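User: Quick one: structure for sequence A, then sequence B.

Assistant: Sequence A:
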Amino acid sequence: MDGLNENFLIECMKENLAHARHIENERMMFNSLFAVLVGGALAVVSQLDDKIIIIVILGILMIIDIICFIFTKRWNKVFKNHYALAKNIYIMFLNKSQSSTPQDTDQKHPDINCFYYFDNQLDKKKYISTGQYFIIYNFMVFVLLLCSMCYFLS
């Protein structure tokens, strides 16, 4: 790699990390707005007597939750791709630096987290990623809406 390619790759790595951070912020903002919408709608629904309006409001919220779930699945994939690209560029630089200085071939590359804390996975068996938590969150909101519909219609 010459200086121009290195600068380009460093910028690509920075952009991928910035985009991954943007995806995290986007996902949190959308889900926070959705939580406010659900809370407000449930407060309104609790004051209504017309079962048809209750069904319509809760049905719309369920549809929005399904859309939120689909967005979350997409955001998880985009986040993982940006993170993987940044990590691949990092490994390319490590391979280049290791080829210029002889080192033990069995030595593993240090993780990108030693320079840029991005992935807090400690135990692969028990780890639940942020993306998985958002999936669980969307599922639980759907169950809450379903239970609310059953409650208000009974």
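Sequence B:
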Amino acid sequence: MQATKKSDAVTITVTVKADARLSSALETEVDTIHTDDGFQFSISADTISDARARSNTVLRSLIAAHNAGLAIGAWE
């Protein structure tokens, strides 16, 4: 198997085990699929650097949504 280069196209798939309502925070970023205990999303990009940047944006959105949910008592 050859080593991946920074210029290679890539797809990242993430499965999140959490309240599926969190996936609504990602509506403008990625398509999500609801699972039995959370949700899943994939990020595709032409380069690893682009995928990394997009994944950082998506993860920051999830963190912000989670923190907002905590602040209003949605996850209790």
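The first strand starts at residue 10 and ends at 16. The CA atoms of residues 6 and 48 lie 5 Å apart.

User: Thanks, that's what I needed.
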